[in-house]
Write a structure and sequence with these properties.
Elements lengths: L3 E4 L6 E9 L3 H6 L2 E3 L10 E9 L2 E11 L10 E8 L1 H13 L3 E2 L4 H8 L5 H12 L3 H11 L2 H25 L11 H20 L1 H9 L1 E6 L6 H9 L17 E7 L2 E7 L9 H16 L2 E7 L6 H12 L3 E7 L5 H6 L15 E3 L7 H12 L15 H22 L4 H19 L5 H8 L7
């Protein structure tokens, strides 16, 4: 297999940069441009050598070379990591030098792909590498680390072992088809085992709601009539003047989006144009975008002034959102301007009565404590980042699709057992289930799937 090289640290100038080389000729290639007290070929595994990189007889940089020998390296191949100074010129010159002596530029995710192909990790663990690099919250990091350490792989391995037990017993019966009286697989035990597998698949599928929220964040649309204080609310939540605030109706004409980490979960807040009847073409486009943002959001904060009533059109929208299963919070704003009216609704105030189950809250977006507002939104989401550590959680749509097909196959087995189908038909459905689970871990894969997965990686990882 060709020897590849790439810059593994982030693009740009830094104090230190790391260049990774992996393949059968990794050590000889680097040795040919490395000058130190001893050649890298004499270095013990997992050791570092100090020296210089030479190009056209000139010193490029003073470096440290870490040497890893197959199979005890990230890729499972001989690997060298060159730590050099972070000058862009130095980095590019070292890459050029390595290419001139036989290395080729690595593609996106090629190092991790080699680790997968060489059996250093399965496909779920390989995908977790990319998730860990992209993590923007503690919950994302924890979830990716759990997958990288084989949290999901272990669960799936146990499922496959149970399925293989079922399949082997049924196929043993097929080998003795001439003796119909022989039954190696007790049908009542098979039914019990099938129920166990079905429950586990369902549990993993149900975990996708949490995993998807952790990985992609929770979308929160701030919707409502003009001058209700939506932009003020966004600014308060973010702790910065992100949106322009004005008494002029229709100031916000386009959606403004920003992210915030609350209790370890990323929330994507979208401030939208105020809902009202208008002949302004540009403002109407903004209103259409506001409604589109609400359609995609998981939580909707419908903001209105404390003394105002929502219009019939707004009430219709709120009903549609509720029917669609979205969490809608009615945010009665400007309590600071109407203290008497606010007092009458004190039980609905943020931090008020613990027994209050209403989806209506009374606030002052301008003066209320932002942490309390954030906690209210977190409570509405019902997502606890600590749940990631409590049970196996899937976060990939690819995994969800495969598990869904696996559960469908098991449901066919359940139905087949109920209808007393022969082992031949049951075995076919069990193989479908095994294949679907095998797609997740990479035990069954094709070049197109692998190319799609690793193309999303950064070069150098």
């Amino acid at each position: 297999m060709r020897t590849i090289c790439a810059i593994s640290t982030a693009p740009g100038i830094g104090g230190i940069a790391v260049i990774r080389i992996s393949g059968d000729d990794a050590i000889p290639c680097v040795d040919s441009v490395f000058r130190g007290h001893h050649p890298l070929s004499e270095a013990s595994p997992n050791t570092i050598r100090h020296g210089e990189i030479i190009h056209n007889g000139e010193v490029v940089d003073e470096v440290l070379c870490s040497v890893f020998r197959a199979p005890r390296s990230f890729t499972g191949e001989d690997t060298v990591e060159i730590a050099c100074h972070g000058s862009m010129y130095i980095q590019q010159t070292i890459i050029q030098t390595l290419i001139e002596v036989g290395c080729v530029q690595a593609g996106p995710g090629e190092f991790t792909k080699r680790a997968f192909l060489n059996g250093k990790m399965d496909l779920t663990e390989a995908e977790a590498v990319a998730d860990l690099i992209a993590a923007q919250s503690k919950a994302e990091k924890d979830l990716a680390l759990t997958h990288l350490k084989g949290g999901i792989s272990t669960e799936l391995k146990q499922l496959r072992e149970k399925l293989l037990t079922l399949t082997s017993l049924l196929e043993l019966e097929l080998d003795f088809a001439d003796h119909e009286e022989l039954e190696f697989a007790d049908r009542s035990e098979l039914a019990e085992l099938t129920e166990t597998i079905h429950a586990k698949l369902t549990s993993l599928l149900d975990s996708f709601k949490l995993g998807n929220a952790v990985k992609n964040g929770i979308s929160v649309a701030i919707i409502g009539p003009t001058n209700a204080g939506k932009s003020t609310l966004l600014n308060t939540l973010l702790g910065e003047e992100r949106a322009i605030v004005s008494d002029i109706p229709g100031t916000t004409r386009d959606s403004i989006e920003d992210c915030l980490i609350i209790n370890g979960i990323q929330y994507r807040f979208i401030d939208t144009a105020g809902l009202r009847e208008t002949t302004d073409t540009i403002e109407n486009i903004g209103i259409s975008r506001a409604k589109a943002a609400a359609e995609k959001a998981q939580i909707i904060l419908f903001v209105q002034s404390l003394t105002d009533k929502a219009s019939q059109a707004d009430e219709k929208l709120i009903a549609e959102w509720n029917n669609a299963g979205k969490k809608v919070l009615r945010v009665m704003n400007k309590s600071d301007l109407y203290p008497a009216f606010s007092a009458e609704n004190e039980s609905n105030r943020i931090g008020g009565s613990a027994e209050n189950e209403s989806n209506t809250i009374v606030i002052s977006a301008k003066f209320d404590e932002p942490n309390t507002l954030r906690q209210t939104i977190s409570d509405a989401a019902g997502i606890n980042a600590n749940q990631v550590a409590l049970a196996p959680t899937i976060s990939s749509a690819r995994h969800y699709d495969a598990l869904f097909r696996a559960r469908e196959a098991i449901e066919h087995v359940r139905q087949g057992l109920h209808n007393e189908l022969s082992g031949e038909f049951l075995s076919l459905d069990l193989h479908d289930c095994l294949n679907a689970i095998g797609e997740i871990t990479g035990e069954i894969s094709n070049d197109e799937v692998l190319a799609n997965i690793f193309s999303k990686f950064c070069i150098g990882k």
